[in-house]
Amino acid sequence: MRLILLEICVGITALLFLVMLTGIARHRAQRRSEGANNATAVSEYLWAAVPWVILTVCALPAVRLIATLH
Q1: Beta-carbon contacts of residue 68 (< 8 Å; ≥ 6 apart)
Q2: Which of 26, 42, 49, 68 is packed most tightly, with the most Cβ within 10 A?
Q3: How many domains does the chain have?
Q4: Residue 52, C-beta contacts closer than 8 angstroms, at least 6 positions apart
Q5: Which residue from 4, 6, 3, 46 is spatially nearest to 24, judged by alpha carbons?
Q6: Distances (CA, A) of 6 to 3, 17, 21, 29, 48
């Protein structure tokens, strides 16, 4: 049961991350004709990646704990 919940949480997180990156890419494509700044694009992708890294680092101990309980 816990593993199923973990898989659901990982799936939801991956889906939200994909939607966020798609939105960033579409927004950047719309503004590209205005001469978009490459430094801004890098900061936008980092802004999207940092929460993903934090979530992964926080989830690893929980996954290890669940694995040891089984």
Answers
A1: none
A2: 49
A3: 1
A4: 13, 17
A5: 46
A6: 5, 16, 22, 34, 22
pLDDT digits (tens, 9 = 90+) for 1-47: 778 888 888 899 899 889 988 988 888 777 655 555 666 777 888 88
Q: Of 66, 25, 30, which is closest to residue 48 (Cα–Cα)? A: 25
Q: How far apart are CA 45 and CA 51, in angstroms?
A: 11
CA dihedral 35, 40, 45, 48 (to 10 degrees): -120
Q: Cα–chain-centroid distance for residue 13? A: 7
Tokens of residue 59, six digits: 């989830």
